[in-house]
Amino acid sequence: MKSKAFRFVVILFLAVVVLGVAFILFTAGMHIPYESQEKYFESIRSIAAIIFGVSGAWLAITYPKAITSADKARQSSAEDRKKAIQDAGNDTEVLLGFIHTMIVSILVISVSLAVPFFKEGLSQWGWALTYREYFRGGLYSLLWILAVVQLSLLFITLRTTNRALRELKRHMAEAEVKADRDANTDH
User: Fold this and answer.
1) Residues contacting residue 52 through CB under 8 Å, at least 6 positions apart
2) What per-residue string of b and e applies to 127-161 under the rule 16 or more CB within 10 Å gives b?
3) In principle, which of 58, 91, 165, 174 could form an S-S bond with 66, CB 3.0–4.6 Å?
4) Is 21 exposed, middle or buried (0-12, 13-18, 19+ CB in 10 A)?
């Protein structure tokens, strides 16, 4: 198992890389007009909405199972309690993975919806027009950060979905083993 210090170093390194790329894109984005950047914000918003919908569908599937396994753990006998608690913990982690994905998707959608309003509001003030290039650069960096968040969300969603499917396969395998045992006791 990886140590917390190693994870911290990896996360710190990735944060430095993302911020470094964001700074490079800031300088490049200073010369890219808002109209060119706007379509990318729309794409990010659309992808976030799709991820939100898929996560919501998985949430609808996994929530009843998590509630059932939590009730089963609460009502289990002493010899079955450890396994029931472990199952309830796994189901809860899958459920929380989808909830976290949905929360981040909402934040991405909110930011991408706020950008056009922010842009129009700033264009009403003369002082903001003098810093237009800096706002463009900041917007392009924000676009990069949102894209990285989107890619992370995609991988998190895939990981959580994979976990849910592995759990389903495990339960199916247990059911098959029980069916085989039942068939063997009949002979």
Assistant:
1) 101, 102, 105, 106, 109
2) eeeeeeeebbbbbbbbbbbbbebbeebeebbeebb
3) 91
4) middle
Closest C-alpha among 100, 62, 66 to residue 85: 66
Torsion-angle region of 116 (φ positive above 0: left; ψ -120 to 50: alpha; else: beta): alpha
Report whether 3 contacts 105 (CB < 8 A): no
At 112, the amino acid letter reads S
Q: Distance (Å, rounded) from C-alpha 117 to C-alpha 63?
A: 36
User: In 3D, which of 103, 97, 99, 92 has the Cα closest to residue 65?
Assistant: 92
Q: Please say whether the beta carbons of 157 and 101 come within 8 A.
A: yes
Q: What is the pTM of this model?
A: 0.72
Q: How far is CA 62 from CA 114, 121, 153, in A?
A: 32, 42, 18
Under the banding of pLDDT at 50, 70 and 90, the label for residue 57 is confident
Please give the angle made by the CA atoms of 110, 111 and 114, to the nearest 5 degrees: 85
Buried b / exposed e over 50-69, threshold 16 CB at 10 Å, is: ebbebbeebbeebeebbeeb
What's the mean pLDDT in 146-159? 84
The Cα–Cα gap between 170 and 88 comes to: 14
